[in-house]
Design goal:
Length: 249
Protein backbone atom coordinates (compact mmCIF):
# COMPACT_ATOMS: atom_id res chain seq x y z
CA UNK A 1 0.00 0.00 0.00
CA UNK A 2 1.50 3.28 -1.09
CA UNK A 3 0.86 6.61 0.56
CA UNK A 4 -0.38 9.50 -1.59
CA UNK A 5 2.42 11.60 -2.95
CA UNK A 6 3.02 14.92 -1.24
CA UNK A 7 2.49 18.15 -3.13
CA UNK A 8 2.62 21.86 -2.64
CA UNK A 9 -0.08 22.96 -0.22
CA UNK A 10 -0.98 25.80 -2.56
CA UNK A 11 -0.85 23.79 -5.77
CA UNK A 12 -4.58 23.95 -6.37
CA UNK A 13 -4.51 27.73 -6.33
CA UNK A 14 -2.41 27.78 -9.47
CA UNK A 15 -0.76 31.05 -10.35
CA UNK A 16 -3.76 33.35 -10.04
CA UNK A 17 -2.26 36.63 -8.86
CA UNK A 18 -5.72 37.99 -8.08
CA UNK A 19 -5.98 35.71 -5.06
CA UNK A 20 -3.27 37.63 -3.27
CA UNK A 21 -4.81 41.00 -4.04
CA UNK A 22 -8.00 40.47 -2.05
CA UNK A 23 -8.45 42.70 0.95
CA UNK A 24 -10.87 40.47 2.86
CA UNK A 25 -8.51 38.83 5.34
CA UNK A 26 -11.26 36.63 6.76
CA UNK A 27 -12.07 35.19 3.34
CA UNK A 28 -8.39 34.62 2.66
CA UNK A 29 -8.02 32.73 5.93
CA UNK A 30 -11.06 30.60 5.08
CA UNK A 31 -9.69 29.74 1.65
CA UNK A 32 -6.28 28.83 3.06
CA UNK A 33 -7.99 26.79 5.78
CA UNK A 34 -10.24 24.95 3.32
CA UNK A 35 -7.38 24.07 1.01
CA UNK A 36 -5.01 22.92 3.74
CA UNK A 37 -7.76 20.92 5.43
CA UNK A 38 -8.61 19.12 2.19
CA UNK A 39 -4.98 18.31 1.49
CA UNK A 40 -4.54 16.96 5.03
CA UNK A 41 -7.66 14.80 4.69
CA UNK A 42 -6.48 13.60 1.27
CA UNK A 43 -3.08 12.75 2.78
CA UNK A 44 -1.38 15.04 0.27
CA UNK A 45 0.04 16.66 3.39
CA UNK A 46 1.02 13.57 5.42
CA UNK A 47 1.28 13.27 9.21
CA UNK A 48 4.24 15.04 10.84
CA UNK A 49 4.91 17.19 7.76
CA UNK A 50 6.17 20.62 8.77
CA UNK A 51 4.10 23.58 7.63
CA UNK A 52 6.00 26.83 7.19
CA UNK A 53 3.89 29.91 7.81
CA UNK A 54 6.19 32.10 5.71
CA UNK A 55 6.45 29.63 2.82
CA UNK A 56 2.69 29.02 2.66
CA UNK A 57 1.99 32.76 2.78
CA UNK A 58 4.30 33.21 -0.22
CA UNK A 59 2.76 30.28 -2.11
CA UNK A 60 -0.80 31.44 -1.50
CA UNK A 61 0.08 35.06 -2.22
CA UNK A 62 -1.25 36.32 1.11
CA UNK A 63 0.18 37.84 4.26
CA UNK A 64 1.13 35.57 7.15
CA UNK A 65 -1.99 36.54 9.14
CA UNK A 66 -4.50 34.43 7.13
CA UNK A 67 -2.12 31.46 7.29
CA UNK A 68 -1.77 31.87 11.06
CA UNK A 69 -5.57 32.02 11.41
CA UNK A 70 -5.94 28.91 9.26
CA UNK A 71 -3.41 27.07 11.44
CA UNK A 72 -5.41 27.99 14.56
CA UNK A 73 -8.64 26.63 13.06
CA UNK A 74 -6.94 23.44 11.91
CA UNK A 75 -5.47 22.98 15.39
CA UNK A 76 -8.96 23.19 16.91
CA UNK A 77 -9.99 20.37 14.56
CA UNK A 78 -7.00 18.31 15.67
CA UNK A 79 -5.54 18.34 12.16
CA UNK A 80 -2.34 20.26 12.94
CA UNK A 81 -0.23 20.76 16.04
CA UNK A 82 1.26 24.16 16.83
CA UNK A 83 4.47 23.49 18.74
CA UNK A 84 5.90 26.42 20.74
CA UNK A 85 9.34 27.46 19.51
CA UNK A 86 9.24 24.69 16.89
CA UNK A 87 6.52 25.55 14.37
CA UNK A 88 3.46 23.75 13.03
CA UNK A 89 3.15 20.15 11.84
CA UNK A 90 0.35 18.03 10.41
CA UNK A 91 -1.06 15.99 13.28
CA UNK A 92 -0.19 12.29 13.36
CA UNK A 93 -2.92 9.71 12.99
CA UNK A 94 -4.58 8.82 16.28
CA UNK A 95 -6.39 5.51 16.73
CA UNK A 96 -8.32 7.01 19.62
CA UNK A 97 -9.57 9.94 17.52
CA UNK A 98 -10.44 7.61 14.65
CA UNK A 99 -12.45 5.42 17.02
CA UNK A 100 -14.16 8.52 18.42
CA UNK A 101 -15.09 9.63 14.89
CA UNK A 102 -16.59 6.25 14.16
CA UNK A 103 -18.57 6.33 17.42
CA UNK A 104 -20.07 9.73 16.57
CA UNK A 105 -20.84 8.69 12.99
CA UNK A 106 -22.65 5.59 14.19
CA UNK A 107 -24.66 7.63 16.69
CA UNK A 108 -25.83 9.91 13.87
CA UNK A 109 -26.01 7.69 10.80
CA UNK A 110 -27.64 4.57 12.23
CA UNK A 111 -30.88 6.38 13.18
CA UNK A 112 -30.72 8.25 9.86
CA UNK A 113 -30.63 4.91 8.04
CA UNK A 114 -33.65 3.67 10.01
CA UNK A 115 -35.64 6.80 9.21
CA UNK A 116 -34.55 6.73 5.57
CA UNK A 117 -35.87 3.18 5.25
CA UNK A 118 -39.25 4.38 6.47
CA UNK A 119 -39.34 7.55 4.34
CA UNK A 120 -37.40 6.70 1.16
CA UNK A 121 -38.96 8.18 -1.98
CA UNK A 122 -38.47 6.83 -5.52
CA UNK A 123 -36.66 10.05 -6.44
CA UNK A 124 -34.00 9.72 -3.73
CA UNK A 125 -33.72 5.97 -4.36
CA UNK A 126 -32.86 6.78 -7.98
CA UNK A 127 -30.21 9.28 -6.86
CA UNK A 128 -28.68 6.71 -4.50
CA UNK A 129 -28.58 4.16 -7.32
CA UNK A 130 -26.94 6.75 -9.57
CA UNK A 131 -24.16 7.27 -7.02
CA UNK A 132 -23.56 3.52 -6.83
CA UNK A 133 -23.24 3.35 -10.62
CA UNK A 134 -20.78 6.25 -10.51
CA UNK A 135 -18.80 4.51 -7.76
CA UNK A 136 -18.55 1.36 -9.87
CA UNK A 137 -17.18 3.48 -12.71
CA UNK A 138 -14.69 5.30 -10.49
CA UNK A 139 -13.55 2.02 -8.94
CA UNK A 140 -12.95 0.58 -12.40
CA UNK A 141 -10.86 3.62 -13.30
CA UNK A 142 -8.99 3.55 -10.00
CA UNK A 143 -10.24 7.10 -9.37
CA UNK A 144 -10.35 7.19 -5.58
CA UNK A 145 -10.76 10.99 -5.39
CA UNK A 146 -14.06 11.04 -7.30
CA UNK A 147 -15.05 7.82 -5.53
CA UNK A 148 -14.74 9.53 -2.15
CA UNK A 149 -16.82 12.48 -3.29
CA UNK A 150 -19.53 10.14 -4.52
CA UNK A 151 -19.36 8.23 -1.24
CA UNK A 152 -20.06 11.46 0.64
CA UNK A 153 -22.99 12.24 -1.65
CA UNK A 154 -24.41 8.75 -1.05
CA UNK A 155 -24.40 9.24 2.71
CA UNK A 156 -25.76 12.79 2.49
CA UNK A 157 -28.67 11.49 0.38
CA UNK A 158 -29.55 9.04 3.16
CA UNK A 159 -29.74 11.98 5.56
CA UNK A 160 -31.97 13.76 3.06
CA UNK A 161 -34.20 10.71 2.72
CA UNK A 162 -34.54 10.63 6.50
CA UNK A 163 -35.71 14.24 6.48
CA UNK A 164 -32.62 15.60 8.24
CA UNK A 165 -30.40 16.77 5.38
CA UNK A 166 -28.59 19.37 7.49
CA UNK A 167 -27.39 16.69 9.92
CA UNK A 168 -24.86 15.74 7.25
CA UNK A 169 -22.96 18.90 8.21
CA UNK A 170 -22.58 17.45 11.72
CA UNK A 171 -21.47 14.12 10.29
CA UNK A 172 -18.82 15.84 8.18
CA UNK A 173 -17.50 17.60 11.27
CA UNK A 174 -17.26 14.26 13.07
CA UNK A 175 -15.52 12.25 10.39
CA UNK A 176 -12.31 14.21 9.78
CA UNK A 177 -10.06 11.60 11.35
CA UNK A 178 -11.85 8.67 9.69
CA UNK A 179 -11.39 10.39 6.34
CA UNK A 180 -7.61 10.35 6.66
CA UNK A 181 -7.61 6.58 7.19
CA UNK A 182 -10.20 6.15 4.46
CA UNK A 183 -7.95 7.96 1.99
CA UNK A 184 -5.16 5.46 2.63
CA UNK A 185 -7.40 2.39 2.53
CA UNK A 186 -9.05 3.37 -0.76
CA UNK A 187 -5.89 3.14 -2.81
CA UNK A 188 -6.85 -0.34 -4.05
CA UNK A 189 -9.62 -1.03 -6.54
CA UNK A 190 -10.53 -4.12 -4.54
CA UNK A 191 -11.40 -2.04 -1.50
CA UNK A 192 -13.44 0.43 -3.55
CA UNK A 193 -15.48 -2.43 -5.01
CA UNK A 194 -15.95 -3.79 -1.48
CA UNK A 195 -17.46 -0.46 -0.40
CA UNK A 196 -19.71 -0.43 -3.47
CA UNK A 197 -21.06 -3.80 -2.34
CA UNK A 198 -21.81 -2.41 1.11
CA UNK A 199 -23.61 0.55 -0.44
CA UNK A 200 -25.68 -1.81 -2.59
CA UNK A 201 -26.67 -3.72 0.55
CA UNK A 202 -27.68 -0.51 2.34
CA UNK A 203 -29.76 0.62 -0.63
CA UNK A 204 -31.48 -2.76 -0.85
CA UNK A 205 -32.49 -2.47 2.81
CA UNK A 206 -33.74 1.07 2.29
CA UNK A 207 -35.80 0.11 -0.76
CA UNK A 208 -37.30 -2.80 1.19
CA UNK A 209 -38.26 -0.29 3.91
CA UNK A 210 -36.38 -2.54 6.33
CA UNK A 211 -35.40 -0.13 9.11
CA UNK A 212 -33.70 -2.75 11.26
CA UNK A 213 -31.76 -4.14 8.31
CA UNK A 214 -30.71 -0.66 7.19
CA UNK A 215 -29.42 0.04 10.69
CA UNK A 216 -27.45 -3.23 10.71
CA UNK A 217 -25.99 -2.67 7.24
CA UNK A 218 -24.93 0.87 8.13
CA UNK A 219 -23.26 -0.39 11.31
CA UNK A 220 -21.25 -2.97 9.37
CA UNK A 221 -20.33 -0.37 6.76
CA UNK A 222 -19.05 2.18 9.27
CA UNK A 223 -17.07 -0.51 11.10
CA UNK A 224 -15.15 -1.50 7.97
CA UNK A 225 -12.69 1.38 8.23
CA UNK A 226 -11.63 0.14 11.66
CA UNK A 227 -10.83 -3.24 10.14
CA UNK A 228 -8.30 -1.49 7.92
CA UNK A 229 -6.44 0.07 10.84
CA UNK A 230 -4.07 -2.83 11.48
CA UNK A 231 -3.11 -3.04 7.80
CA UNK A 232 -2.55 0.70 7.52
CA UNK A 233 -0.61 0.90 10.78
CA UNK A 234 1.66 -1.91 9.60
CA UNK A 235 2.23 -0.21 6.25
CA UNK A 236 2.72 3.29 7.69
CA UNK A 237 3.80 3.11 11.35
CA UNK A 238 5.51 6.47 10.90
CA UNK A 239 2.09 8.15 10.51
CA UNK A 240 0.75 7.17 13.94
CA UNK A 241 1.19 8.70 17.36
CA UNK A 242 1.84 6.42 20.31
CA UNK A 243 -1.03 6.60 22.77
CA UNK A 244 -2.71 4.59 25.47
CA UNK A 245 -5.83 2.78 24.29
CA UNK A 246 -9.07 4.51 25.16
CA UNK A 247 -7.45 7.79 26.21
CA UNK A 248 -9.56 10.80 25.26
CA UNK A 249 -7.74 13.25 23.00
Amino acid sequence: MKAPKGRSAAAEFGSEASYGTRQDGGSMASQVYDRLMQQILDMQLPPFQELSEARLAAEFGVSRTPVREAFARLARRGLVEILPQRGTIVSPLSENLIAKSRFIREALERPLARLAAERLTPEIAALLKREIVLQQTFAGLGDDQDFLQSDDRFHSLIAKAAGFETIWDDVREAKFHMDRIRRLSLLSQEHMYFIVGEHEEILARLQAHDAKGADESMTVHLASVMHELDVIRSAHPEYFVREAAGVEQ
